[in-house]
Amino acid sequence: MTSDARGGAEAALAEAVVRVHERALDVRAADPAAVDTAAADNLADALTGGNPASLVSTAVTAEGVEVLTTAGVRVEEGGGLFYEQATLGACLLTSATAGSSAGDVGERGTVTTEAVACPAGMTPVVDSAPVQATTIEVERLESPVPMSRPAPCFSGSDDCEGGG
Fold it and tell me: pLDDT (tens digit, 9 = 90+) per residue, 117-127?
């Protein structure tokens, strides 16, 4: 892998970490108090898009729930006969602490997402092919669980606040 393609893959993988974190925040906003197996499974389904190949494990801990998933990216730089391709993957640990459903932001728990070393034998997959797992240098993301966001409102649907 050359530096241009690898640099693009590292940037794309860092963006994937942010997307996983944002999905976890959305899921937890709907039910920040849940810290049981069903909550861990619900979070895992949201983070993997229902793709069981990217789920490594779920756990209920004393602090909340944890979901270990894989993420992978493929990046192509250049074109024609002179293109470079890079694929990278990482394991991501997303942890959610319990909070209060009735509380304000700050009282609704937190979500943390970070890249971690993959367990022995676990290889991230991109387009059905195993890829090099790397521990990427990305900032550990930690955010308070936000208030639940209202469902999207479509003009004319009569389910919008203040009418359609």
Answer: 888 888 888 87
